[in-house]
TrEMBL record:
It comes from Nocardioides mangrovicus. This is Type IV toxin-antitoxin system AbiEi family antitoxin domain-containing protein. It comes from the Bacteria.
Length: 311
């Protein structure tokens, strides 16, 4: 008689070897997967299908981490996966695989695990329930190198500097250690541009775009007083008479006042825009996520705004 494996899940995960210990055989597991009760997270590990289907990619990765740590009795979580464990932004990350660092790692991908070659450092952090995770500084550096992306390095460095999970000295030390690695040269511009004043992934991407395309004199978090309140514009370019605001969805959620709808928040933002233009003499330009794929057009709009302001 088939046994129901769902009650055997621990921390959302059931390992095949654990199921066998409790009298649930491979036929039972196969039947549970076929009927939609379980989902195979990786070879030898299962989760509740109803829970799995509702989880965002970051939380699915955490379940995969739980399964792998239980299967192997430990492991050093690193690179993209360590960013998630440290609460960092998931933009540009590989969330389909668990990244592990081990002395005999070869960079191969096997059963949803990417094995990187490396050793544990004294700064690595132990995790509750087993295993460890690379330090924030090491995580930023190694993820930037793996992706070979200055832009991702700016996003990660700025986020963790802003949240004070890392400081400039720690990033500098990790940078120095990694310079001899293949791809390490991408770190120098990335960490030079990382700035704790950047309040979101979209702001970090804009900041990178400005510098990559030669726009100088940009000031992040530019302070202005409007309607008796102190506000910070995402970016100001005083020499051009232009200010730039990013329209990421998280902004309207974060700054929505109690009892205020998203529409109310947008209207208040637009009213503020008018007052900033009148008081500061700055012409506004707004960018959203879609604009990041069109940098030349973004720069053209900035210079057009400068021309309008000068007319």
């Amino acid at each position: 008689m088939a046994r129901d494996p769902l009650p055997l899940l621990v921390d959302g995960v059931l390992l095949r070897r654990e199921a066998l210990d409790f009298g649930v055989d491979d036929d039972d597991l196969t039947k549970a997967v076929r009927e939609g009760a379980l989902v195979r997270v990786r070879q030898g590990a299962y989760a509740d299908r109803r829970v799995w289907d509702r989880l965002p990619a970051q939380e699915r990765l955490l379940l995969l981490k739980t399964a792998v740590i239980r299967m192997y009795g430990g492991g050093l979580i690193s690179h993209d996966s360590a960013v998630v464990l440290h609460g960092g932004p998931d933009w540009g990350l590989d969330l389909e695989h668990l990244h592990l660092t081990r002395p005999d790692g070869t960079g191969r991908t096997q059963a949803r695990i990417v094995h990187h070659r490396g050793v544990a450092h004294p700064t690595d952090l132990h995790l509750p329930g087993g295993g460890s995770v690379t330090s924030v500084a090491r995580t930023v550096v190694e993820t930037t190198i793996r992706a070979d992306s200055v832009e991702l390095g700016v996003v990660l460095g700025s986020h963790f500097l802003r949240t004070k999970q890392v400081n400039s000295d720690e990033l500098r030390d990790a940078h120095t250690t990694a310079l001899h690695h293949r791809g390490g040269l991408v770190l120098t511009p990335a960490l030079a541009l990382a700035d704790p004043r950047l309040g979101s992934v979209l702001e970090s991407r804009c900041w990178y775009m400005f510098h990559r395309h030669g726009l100088r004199g940009v000031i992040p978090q530019y302070p202005v007083v409007v309607m008796g309140e102190l506000f910070f514009l995402d970016f100001a370019i005083p020499k051009l008479g232009v200010w730039v605001e990013t329209d990421g969805k998280e902004k309207y959620v974060k700054y929505r006042r109690p009892g205020e709808s998203i529409v109310d928040t947008v209207r208040r933002e637009r009213r503020r825009e008018i007052l900033v233009r009148e008081k500061e003499g700055l012409e506004p330009v707004r960018f959203d996520w879609w604009d990041m794929g069109r940098p030349e057009e973004c720069l053209r709009r900035i210079y057009q705004a400068a021309q309008r302001r000068a007319a």
